Amino acid sequence: MRCPRCKGNNDDAARYCSLCGNELPHGAHGARGERAASEGGEGGDGGIAALGEMAVVQLVFFSLFTFGIYSAVWFLKRLEAINNLRSEVKIGEEPFGFIIAGSIVNIGLVLFVAASGEPAESLSTENILMASDLLGIAVQVTMIVQCFKLRSALVDHTGGELHISWVWTILFTVFYLQHKINRLMEQSGNESERIYHP
Questions:
Q1: Backbone angles phi, psi at 41, to 5 degrees
Q2: d(Cα 187, Cα 25) in Å, to the nearest integer?
Q3: Residues 6+ apart with CB under 8 A from 78
């Protein structure tokens, strides 16, 4: 079965394109999938293409510039597309509210300690810095959990064909996942070119 949108090859029994996520034309579902593809829409559930391509360097820059807050914004901007992937795994908004609020509070704590002028050895400064460290760990663990949910959704969506390393997911979180999304979109484009230009 060839996808009418990206021209990728799929199993005859497939309902959705494994490359772009477009609903494939089968019976009653076909008209809607072909119409959405011909109109340039996402069709079906939107697929990987709805997550959007972004240079990993750009994502790293935005995240560093915002002290990690942009990583949560990255998720929020793609939340609908993530939850439209063919997967039982769904992601809510609440964890990202905690990540953003926690990051802002953490920045405030560090600035407060820097502005207070108290020595680093004082009890109050140590307590504030310990609270900041614990909050930072909680924020990072929350982000890693959400990244693993997205990892599972991407693997489910591609029928298990996509390999996403759990080690790299822990180490590089959204940066690694964006890299994998970019690679999938690139493969989808290459598949279309190969079909048009054998």
A1: -80, 180
A2: 22
A3: 50, 51, 52
- pLDDT tens, position by position, 162-175: 899 999 999 999 99
Distance CA 191, CA 60 (A): 29
Query: Per-residue DSSP letters for 13-49?
Result: T-SB-TTT-PBP--HHHHHHHHHHHHTTS--TT-TGG
Instruction: Give the integer Cα–Cα distance in Å for 141 and 102.
Output: 12
Mean pLDDT lowest for which of 27-31, 69-73, 144-148, 149-153? 27-31
What's the angle, vertex CA 39, arms to CA 38 and CA 45, rounded to 5?
Answer: 90
The owner of tokens 């760990």 is 137
More confident residue, 46 or 7: 7
Q: Which residues, in sequence order, are bridge partners of residue 23?
A: 16
CA distance 95 to 101: 10
Environment class of 93 (CB within 10 Å of its CB; exposed 0-12, middle 13-18, buried 19+): exposed
Does residue 127 or residue 1 have the better pLDDT?
127
pTM score: 0.74
| CA–CA separation, 26 and 41 (whole Å) | 18
Residue 128 backbone class (left: φ over 0; alpha: ψ -120 to 50; beta: rest): alpha
